[in-house]
Write a structure and sequence with these properties.
Shape: globular
Strand content: under 5%
Distance between the termini: 19 Å
Largest sheet: 2 strands, antiparallel
Order of helices and strands: HHHHHHEEHHHHHHHHHH
Number of strands: 2
Radius of gyration: 22 Å
Length: 387
Amino acid sequence: MTEMVYGAVPLRDADPVLPRWWRTLDKWSFFSVLMLFAIGILLGLAASVPLAEKNGFAPFHYVQRQIAFGALALFIMAFVSMQRPETVRRLAVLGFLAALLSLMCLPFLGTDFGKGAVRWYSLGFASVQPSEFLKPTFVVAAAWMIAASDEINGPPGRLWSFALMVAILGFLAMQPDFGQAALVLFGWGAMWFVSGAPVTLLLIMAGLVVAAGSLAYTHSEHFARRIDGFLSQELDPTTQLGFATNAIREGGFFGVGVGEGQVKWSLPDAHTDFIIAVAAEEYGLVLVLAIIALYGGIVLRSFLRLMRERDPFIRLAGTGLVAVFGAQAMINMGVAVRLLPAKGMTLPFVSYGGSSVVAGGIALGMLLAFTRTRPQGQIGDLLRGRR
């Protein structure tokens, strides 16, 4: 009866998993992620060598680690993207509970690695940042709650998601990690907007965010220092922002040449937070625009596919994942050109970082799973049927 009403095509369960996955996958987004990772390796060959020499490692120590973490992330991304949305939701909820527990234990068991913010667990051979894994899993869990609240006799999912979001922001502020807190809030706000939340309520929340920022500026030296540096009319050329700004200016349109850049010898975070400065200096505006186009392509294609989706949960979860992914890329590049205050945030799939790239693989795997073409009809079929 459903097929007669919506014109859906029956599932061909007899199809092997891989051919069915490949046929329904958003291949442009999939290959865009691969290209971003390849660009990250290319930039890592230049940016990470000075740090490796400084720490007494082989020249390409960090590149080798990035390749290993990246291979794991791409495998996870492909595996997760093959799963049904229901399976992804279950795995995300379990992952969210584990990530939330890890976040709660950070003040007691975590370390700051001398950076002034307790954000990591040290495992000896590697480190883990729970907030990276919390972002995508919270988005999916919150989308499930919000979608369930719209059902007849459904639970108060909106209230539950709001309470969880506030709790998470509190734990992140304790580290402090205002950058990740902003991403969590932005992803949740995007889902609330798409789910039909009143604009007045969103404006009230925006006002509360401004008030919270003012409070943080007053009581957090870490936060105030970054805001003051951003608002200062004069830029200290010996700071990370100063080095990055100069590198971008020197790169011009085509860059100074492969391996000829100097910013990687001055920036301690050249291979992570300021990797885009290395790209701009050595390869110029051409590569920067290509990177922006890849991120923009993933975001745009995902939104277009989600607009045709009938399932409220999939629409909300996909929207939240796209919002967090796009916002993180925008914030990282915005910081490098001094459009935004310093956040300590990586560029997805391009910057070095085990937790960042693996969590990115999980997030994009879930997004690819939600944007796969499913023989269930599209939302346009339902709207036309109501006319």
